[in-house]
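Records of this kind hold a single protein each, on a pair of labelled lines. With that in mind, the following record should read easily:
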Amino acid sequence: MNSPKVTLDQWRALIAVIDYGGFAQAAKKLNRSQSSVSHAVNKLQDLLDFKILHIQGRKAVLSDAGLILLERARQLLNDACAIEQQALHLGQGWEAEIRLAVETAFPTHVLMEALKAFEPISNKTRIRLQEVVLSGAEEVLLEGKTDLLISPYVPQGFLGEELIQVKFTAVAHPGHRLFKLGHKLNTYDLSREIQVVVSDSGSKGINTGWLSDSQRWAVNSLESARKIISSGLGFAWLPVSEIKQQLNDNELKALPLSEGASYTAVLYLVYPDLSRVGPATKQLAEILKSVSV
């Protein structure tokens, strides 16, 4: 059997250069020196005996042949990681750790119920929990940073299933001037006020704010949005499951919109690769499905 000339490390360096836009950015992401990344990519091209990259301005760009090889290289790295993961599963029985990424709108009480149910049977498997918003969900999948994901959509090329429906409603502090207008609110009324939105945690920066930039305040979490709205600043569409206490305590109040006062979003349970999911992750997934009904 012939041994490959190019190493996994060299393919990894090439992928990072393309994904992150250059040698300096790739070096930062890989926690390596720029010279080592450059050497790895140059060595790869020497071994293949043709140029994969060319420099356009300050950016490294793939040739047409390089584009084909890049996709094969991604699969090669994924397969190598899968072999190592499978060996870990076989050696330990259960995974040592589950990386769980959860869309921030997923009801907290449901998540806590699932984790409490999992703990007695976890066999000391650790949970590494990460909150994501919008395209941040897709990014953790593509970057291989999650074993199980609760996402607002199923990214192309992945498997997932509907997990739960989350109701959002427009709210503000009861003392907000919108409640003093004395009529069903319309788009004109809202356009004169500040809307608070939770920022996309991914690099795509998907914008879900209804208002223009000048009238929109962006925060990093639902908790921050809730605190701002409860203080009397602005309005927002927030998950009803996360603001029940504030609604009961009259810290927040549903806005009387003429239309669009509430909407329902679907969240999905998504697997990076179902064929490679370990037994602990499968068990946690089943628990999440059972408590989300």
Summary: The domain at 8-90 is CATH 1.10.10.10 (Arc Repressor Mutant, subunit A). The chain has a mean pLDDT of 88.
